[in-house]
UniProtKB/TrEMBL annotation:
CDD domains: CMPK. This is Cytidylate kinase. It catalyses: dCMP + ATP = dCDP + ADP; CMP + ATP = CDP + ADP. Its EC number is 2.7.4.25. GO terms for molecular function: kinase activity. InterPro entries: Cytidylate_kin, Cytidylate_kinase_dom, P-loop_NTPase. SUPFAM superfamilies: P-loop containing nucleoside triphosphate hydrolases (SSF52540). It is an enzyme of class 2 (transferase). It is found in: Cytoplasm. Residues 7-220 form the Cytidylate kinase domain. Its main location: cytoplasm.
Length: 229
């Protein structure tokens, strides 16, 4: 039996990372790991505890007391913090608007990167985030960097919200995404950055299926290469 590959998928908010990562993982029977959900969970726990989100030691203490686990689900994976389901709570506007602050704390990143590397050790994993190809899995056999215009990404968020019955302004969403892009790309520790050896896919005008097929093809090529060596 061939050992599964490590597949890293990075990119800015709403580029389509989690949607395609999940489908690609299913196709190859790999484990899907949503690292953004991990940063969102720490943020939620810190907000609920009412701690100052820039108090690194306090937030780290909370993270150390929090077991973050995933369970497969449709249309989204279920996320748990100490067995307590947080799948929906971690997608709230409040968490979304505060997650980049928590994700900039070096000790929080260090602790989560350790957990992510532990999960990926056995291979057969598709992991999505901001720093997977650069920091978490620098030796991943397949690295993808997904991008799309800010306008297109805001429209995707808008449609997602609409489906959930939430009315938001497209202009606000565009500003929120642009701000998070800026914060994620400019922080001191492992900023959002394309790994030198990542394949960039612009999804602005591509369907989910087209993106999935491109990535699946790259995985197939790599599997064939590994087999022949
Ligand atoms: O789904 P969306 O693109 O909105 O974001 P996400 O993937 O759930 O990630 C939420 C936030 O977590 C990002 O805006 C980053 O600030 C942070 N994050 C990170 O710093 N590193 C990662 N590997 C994943 C997420
Ligand atoms: O994980 P990330 O924030 O990068 O994005 P996502 O949550 O997977 O995707 C954001 C939205 O864009 C979802 O509603 C997808 O259905 C949609 N999408 C799309 O319309 N076209 C694509 N090529 C990829 C995603």
């Amino acid at each position: 039996h061939q050992k599964g590959l490590q597949v890293a998928i990075d990119g800015p908010a709403s580029a389509g990372k989690s949607t395609v990562a999940k489908i690609v993982a299913q196709r190859f029977s790999y484990v899907y790991v949503d690292t953004g959900a991990m940063y969102r969970t720490v943020t939620l726990v810190a907000l609920q505890a009412g701690v100052d989100l820039t108090d690194e030691e306090r937030v780290l203490q909370l993270l150390e007391q929090t077991q973050i686990t995933f369970q497969p689900g449709e249309p989204v994976q279920h996320v748990f913090a100490n067995q307590h389901e947080v799948t929906e709570a971690i997608r709230s506007e409040l968490v979304t608007n505060n997650v980049s602050t928590v994700a900039a704390l070096p000790k929080i990143r260090e602790a989560l990167v350790d957990r992510q590397q532990e999960i990926a050790r056995a291979g057969g994993v598709v992991m999505d985030g901001r720093d997977i190809g650069t920091t978490v899995l620098p030796d991943a056999e397949v690295k993808i960097f997904l991008v799309a215009s800010v306008k297109q990404r805001a429209e995707r968020r808008y449609l997602e919200n609409q489906a959930k019955g939430i009315t938001t302004s497209l202009v606000d969403l565009q500003a929120e995404i642009a701000e998070r892009d800026y914060k994620d790309s400019h922080r001191a520790v492992s900023p959002l950055q394309r790994a030198a050896d990542a394949v960039e896919i612009d999804t602005t005008t591509l369907s989910i299926e087209q993106v999935v097929n491109q990535i699946a093809e790259l995985i197939q090529e790599k599997l064939a290469e590994v087999k022949n060596n």
